Write the structure tokens for this entry.
Amino acid sequence: MFWKNLREEIDATLARDPAARSRLEVVLCYPGFHALIFHRLAHWLWQRGWLLAGRFVSHLGRVLTGIEIHPGARIGRRLFIDHGMGVVIGETAEIGDDCTLYHGVTLGGRLPRRGEFGQKRHPTLGNNVIVGSGAQILGPFRVGDGARIGSGAVVINEVPDGVTMVGPPARAIPRRGAAEDKEPAFLPYGIPGDIPDPIARALNGLLDEVTRLRARVAEREKGGVTLAAPGNGADNHTPASLLGGERR
């Protein structure tokens, strides 16, 4: 089973990284794969009560790869850690199958209150989750299956299935129809090519409305001045409301 899982993780790297040319290259040159090997061993020791040994193996993996995974974290199959430098995965974090993490990702926890030590403090990622570089997911909540966390996002609340989160603090991008309900396509760094920021969309709507209102005001003012100009028959044809009062 151990060797089968390693083969699956190598194949997952080949499938998701166009720079990977062979299984041997992945085995020798990919720190994300090395970090997973260290974690599998450290987690095995941790589960059997050899806590110091587990932490020491985890520390060796951190020194050699730049990826810090607590031995208590639970990681599913076919995880791909791309580049990997600066990735931090906390003690009670859980990661489902077929997930992708980029460099600088933190699966962190909030500060436990008195009496809460030993309880869950870190997030749970569902299956097929992509977390972009520099994203921070902080707290004991779930990130749903197929979710996408954009680069630099700061997520502090639960994420529904299939939702894309962008921005600090992270905001959800609305789904784009029935196609989103099918098998999610792999998105590098967890974001599509065009990111419809909901706040930018609202601001653009307000700017468009202001532009329309200015055009209407300018049209009214232009019409009022033309009609009120001397010698153009304004007294005979201009409505009283445009001349500022009733005609006498």
Summary: Helices lie at 2-16, 23-29, 31-47, 51-65, 198-228, 234-237. Residues 198-228 form the longest helix (31 residues). The chain is about 35% helix and 15% strand.
